[in-house]
Amino acid sequence: MSFFISDAMAQGDAAAGDPLLGLLFPIGLIVILYFLMIRPQIKRQKQHKALVEGLSKGDEVVTMGGVAGRIVDLGDNFAQLEVSDNVVIKIRRIAVEAVLPKGSLKDL
């Protein structure tokens, strides 16, 4: 008999109960992970996709890099932004982070 190591006791039929009970905790963790992390991310992706598809010529937008401008031309994958008088840059459509209310660029 050792003072540091406890004696192992064999568990007969008590451990061989319901095998699904042992899976309850991992399944519960997966469900919690889905509702706290995966589902909100999917919702944000859908909102961003709707925002990008709803872009139109003349919209005032801010890109993920912080560039603000007015859309002067739209393509399938790219958009051209006028960031100043006679200064036009080409960006990817998915880089648009937000659409500003009309007249916002005059305030900047």
How would you portray this structure in words?
- 31% of the residues lie in helices and 27% in strands.
- By secondary structure, it is an alpha+beta fold.
- Strands 4-3-2-1-5 form a five-stranded antiparallel β-sheet.
- The radius of gyration is 28 Å and the shape is elongated.
- The chain starts with 23 loop residues before the first helix and ends with a helix.
- The mean pLDDT is 87.
Key phrases:
single chain; five-stranded antiparallel sheet; 31% helix; 2 helices; 108 residues; 2 domains; alpha+beta; 5 strands; SH3 type barrels
Low-confidence stretches: none
Q: Terminal Cα separation, in Å?
A: 80 Å
Largest beta-sheet characterization? 5 strands, antiparallel
What is the tally of beta strands? 5
Number of domains: 2
| Oligomeric state | single chain
Share of residues in helices: 25-40%
Strand order of the largest sheet: 4-3-2-1-5
What value does the average pLDDT take? 87
Secondary structure: elements and pairs:
Layout: H1 24-53, E1 60-63, E2 68-74, E3 78-84, E4 87-92, E5 96-100, H2 104-107
Antiparallel strand pairs: 1-2, 1-5, 2-3, 3-4
Q: What would a concise description of this structure say?
A:
This protein is of the alpha+beta class and 108 residues long.
